[in-house]
Amino acid sequence: MASEEELFANIDALLEEEPQLPPPAERARLREAAGITQARLATALKSTVQTVKNYENGRSEPKSPRLEAYQRLLKGWAAKYPTHPAPAPVVAPQPQVPETFTHVPTVEQDEAEPDIGTAVKPVQERPVVRPATSSRRPAAKKAAAPAVDPRFPHGPLAVLDGDGSAYAVGGVVLDCPATTVPELVEWTLRESRLGAPKLNRYGKDSDPLIVLTAAAAVKLGLPERLEGHEQRRSLRLPEDHPVVKQVAKAKWQLTQRGFGPWARIYRKAQGRDRQCVQLAILSWDALDERSWPGVAEMEPADIARVLGVYAQRVITPRGSTAVSGLELMTALRPPTKAVQDPETGNWVSGYNAGSLGTEPMDPAPPEATPEHPVVVSSGWTGGFLNEEAYQWVRPVQTLSDEECTLPFAVGLDLNTAFLAAAARLVVGLSAPDHFHAPKFNPKIPGSWLADLSHIELDPRLPSPFTPDGSRPTGPAWYQTHTLAYAQELGHDVHPIEAYLRRETGAYLDPWHDRLKNAYVDTLADMGVTKDLDDAAFLAAMAQHKQNDPALAAVLSAIKATVKGGVGKLRERPQGKHYKEGETWPALARPTWRPDIRAAVISKARVNMHRKLNNMAKMTRLYPLAVLSDCVVYPSPGESPLDFLPYAASGKPQPGGFRLGPTPGLAKLEGVQSMLWAVDLMEKGLNPARHIKGGDAVLDEGE
Predict the structure, then answer these.
(1) What is the pTM of this model?
(2) Closest-CA residue to 482 (of 512, 439, 511, 440)
(3) Distance of alpha carbon 222 from alpha carbon 179, whole angstroms
């Protein structure tokens, strides 16, 4: 008989063996059952799509620590999606993990609302639920639904119509008996079971959103329209309006922005109970047509579908897409986390590494705006960063006769170029320190004063150092990426002074990953997938908006979230009563970070110039104009396939512009005649602006 030592040795040997994974075919089945693409899984595992394919066809196996992470994921999926249907397991109550205690100002209010705690627990009563039998139900295909949180079975939001029908995601219709705003808030928190789980373990759940149609607004005592001299989205109900009085009488509160198109109604936290509801009034222009094309005119069920897909893939809207873009940054990188005090054993709020913290940070004077208190109080006259997107038109005299005889001008638009620039972008997390005559280091984020006016570049290309593409005329402030690109081009860089940050991190990485997946997945649902060749890609892009207008609106909102979120990092003062040198509400946010905005734009502009330069080397083609992320080329044909560089094998040449649905790759924006484009250039106009159909600056307002 074996001894005890031998038995324990055998058991220890088993314990030390590598974790066993299910067969390759089962791995693929579990992933598909969860509705996860190979690209998303590759992102989660910090790997590549090809590696995931190898895992699922048995060609290779993961190694530690990826092995343990992959095994944990597969075990979780196996419990949710067994081979044979099994009874649904009883969901264990979530442990009471202490929430963070430090409130961070949000972007849709003039002053921070009081901390209102965490989500209120739903009572046992269930709302009346009926299937959406109305003809207003969306007939188009639905995006793959994620696993439903048992606390929020009806999704993150509902669209309330005038007959008391609240259209939630998935075709569910709830009966809402509320006839006043306070009753609506009570019903939402206690009966609707709406909401969304937090995006980060240290964050907090998303509050439920109720979208009011014009009929619902009138039924609740609200005016159908907000009228005034200012834009409706900036108007508010007066404090003596009956609905505002009703809210106050019922012991509810409004944020300092008052009752406007995006109204936030809450009560102070009672222990761990969070009581807060977000309202959006459609007829008050809550959904801007530029970001949500056609959505406000849709039927309630279709609106619920559009906003539901956006909430699932991005975040539950809390205001404009610009507001949501900035809120997403904080939701994915919460400023604090609960930590245990070693002396008392109590849970207290502590800094969450990699975040921007809880307190606003003054910028360096050259990073600020001229009206900023830091500039006004110090009397700063040393100049400012001018890291903006390209708005450049090529001088007509640099056009060759051969170029002028080409019949077409073709516009290429980079997919979410600023999102691509945010990938693996190292930014400062601490306050800036001032240095004189520092040695340039391309790995340190900050602002550098340097003279690049001596650098000679091809006049047929825009200068990479200025937004208008002109050659610098003397010393100027540049973000790190701009100077690093000057070094990359082979030029010496000798900064005169600099404002640099010692603590750094890739703050925007999770923001980039979530928005990239949202963009790519939404395009894939519209028939534009990564496996298409260039010709098929152009054909799919030509009709993708007509295939599903609802998803087209989601795609537009995702793109607006990227640009608006980056723009909000340097939100300027608004209102005619503002005086220079005064503070303004946005400065109270830790996310008022003009240096991060400058880093994103600088990297995007450098990326654009690098592609332009490589295209010139490979094809000897030079652009006619560049507007932000759109570039116009002269072409012998109507398609970019007529001038983009391809290898003999038919594959696109690396380094230049490539077509595809991924952020940073190009798509066809428009085709015009070459004579038309040259005529615009002679008049001092930008062909890219007209092909693109509008400006493309990063909005700092909303």
Answers:
(1) 0.81
(2) 440
(3) 11
